[in-house]
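User: Design a sequence. Structure:
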């Protein structure tokens, strides 16, 4: 399989990199607990088959260009399971990511016929693309990422634009676009609740 066009950077995006309208983003960390497991990599794609990887080989998070993009009100940030990435980006970069779109929330709102809302399942069903998850649990804090890690990391952002297009069509068809927008707008606050000590508890529950 041909490697997509992947550019690796360290500690920040280069000043000249611009994303118009929307950018797909994913993060890789040392694990699943934002307070314990540090941010190692941020992957970004315009949805054109190419990706930028911003690596943090050590815990030094001074990334003004990346932070400006995450907070830019003109650029929609597309994620799959945005809740986790937003919390990690908030904790390590000190920036609130918005506006956002989450393909997992969109899928949960319209694909009510299934409980399979993982990225691999979505990409297979909606785009007929097979995504490998082999490198998912590898050492993302390593100073030198392998070719396999970089390809895997990029593959997590290459399809989010196409997924959004499909899911937007379904949200419209089912009359749930407004509900989706409200959920996306709430996501930065859901992530804030995670970081503030309510990661499991549903404060809307009885
Ligand atoms: Mn990933």
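Assistant: Done.
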């Amino acid at each position: 399989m041909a490697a997509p066009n992947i550019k690796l950077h360290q500690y920040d995006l280069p000043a000249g990199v611009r994303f118009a309208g929307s950018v797909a983003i994913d993060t890789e960390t040392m694990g699943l607990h934002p307070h314990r497991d540090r941010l190692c990599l941020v992957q970004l794609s315009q949805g054109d088959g190419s990706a930028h990887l911003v690596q943090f080989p050590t815990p030094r998070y001074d990334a003004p260009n990346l932070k400006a993009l995450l907070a830019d009100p003109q650029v929609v940030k597309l994620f799959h399971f945005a809740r986790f990435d937003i919390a990690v980006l908030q904790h390590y970069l000190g920036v609130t990511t918005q506006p956002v779109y989450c393909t997992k929330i969109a899928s949960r709102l319209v694909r009510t016929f299934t409980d399979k809302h993982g990225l691999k399942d979505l990409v297979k069903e909606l785009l007929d693309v097979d995504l490998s998850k082999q490198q998912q649990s590898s050492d993302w804090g390593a100073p030198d990422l392998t070719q396999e890690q970089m390809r895997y990391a990029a593959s997590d952002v290459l399809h989010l634009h196409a997924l959004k297009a499909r899911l937007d069509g379904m949200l419209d068809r089912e009359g749930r676009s407004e509900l989706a927008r409200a959920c996306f707008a709430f996501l930065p606050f859901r992530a804030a609740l995670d970081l503030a000590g309510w990661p499991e508890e549903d404060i809307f529950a009885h």
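Residues 6-196 form a domain with the Nucleotidyltransferase; domain 5 fold (CATH 3.30.420.10). The longest helix spans residues 177-196.
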